Amino acid sequence: MMTKKILITGITGQVGSQLADYVLEHTKYEVVGMMRWQEPMDNLYHLTTRINNKDRISICYADLNDSTAIARMLKDVRPEFISHLAAQSYPKTSFNIPVETLQTNVIGTANLLENIRQLNELDGYDPVVHICSSSEVYGKAKPGVALAEDTAFHGASPYSISKIATDYLGQFYGEAYGLRTFVTRMGTHSGPRRSDVFFESTVAKQIALIEAGLQEPFIKVGNLSSTRTFQDARDAVRAYFLLLEASERGEVKPGDYFNIAGEEVFKLPEVIELLIGMSTRKDIEVVTDTDRLRPIDADYQMFDNTKIKTAINWKPEIAARTMFSDLLNHWRSEISKGKIPLNR
Prior knowledge:
The protein is of the alpha/beta class. It has helices spanning 14-26, 48-52, 67-77, 91-96, 98-123, 158-177, 199-211, 233-248, 268-277, 306-311, 320-336, and strands at 5-9, 30-35, 57-61, 81-84, 128-132, 180-186, 189-190, 218-221, 227-232, 256-260, 264-267, 285-288, 300-301. The chain has a 7-stranded parallel β-sheet with strand order 3-2-1-4-5-6-10, sandwiched between helices. Strands 7, 9, 11 and 13 form a 4-stranded mixed β-sheet that branches. Strands 8-12 form a two-stranded parallel sheet. α3 (67-77) crosses α5 (98-123), α5 packs parallel to α6 and α7 runs parallel beside α9. It is globular, with a radius of gyration of 20 Å. The model has no long low-confidence stretch (mean pLDDT 93).
């Protein structure tokens, strides 16, 4: 019997690398990671020996914006499962590079889905396809209202607009062509490997820099008015995988969509207080940096997880405090190795 394969686009990211770890630990599937050749390997160095030895994990070089490369990869690999996580995923950055964000996230996703559709039409290739959208599709939500899957979208950044289109593409290819797609809208997620452009990670990074004597004892932040749930990315990738298997069993209808969110709620100043409380330094102050402010913020994100819990046996298991502690220790470890991050 042939070993099943899962293709993970965006495997070098926090979530992609965590999903690879989960699949390697909990299944016998082969992992194929899609990446651009020049991407940093920081989140995969712990797997490079296995990659070099072709021990159930390999790398395929391709770019979402190169439809020919996507077609070749799919024909060569023919994975039973595809988790499409690759994206320009930074909301604040999307204000500076809106066209690149739309090109990568919208056209790139269309390139992937259209190539799958053509193979399906040609020879019946029928993988399960996970399309990663984002909770940012809901944009500026009404305070006090839990966001359910039928809540209206409201683009609050070029990134969120790109993910609205990505979301609809995932639904469309399932409904129109019968591809076994499903869409996930993950709420705020964090933990080790979280990029430093995101709020809680830049706070943890700055604390680690202060502890190492590489930054004055001031944490620079942007807008702190947001209230949101947090979840550990390791919990979220478990939901991703369970949905992939449920879809393979026919328990998820083509084009369906799900919120995946944490259930612990924080105002952003509470996150800062929690992380500073974990520090060895007791003289840290917080200052506002106008360069970190966005033109519009998605400043209220509370979620209703009812739908996903009816589809799979899942709930968040890793406590937010553990997640934040692991994130801070991640940055301490990186800095101790001489990997000094940018001030951003």
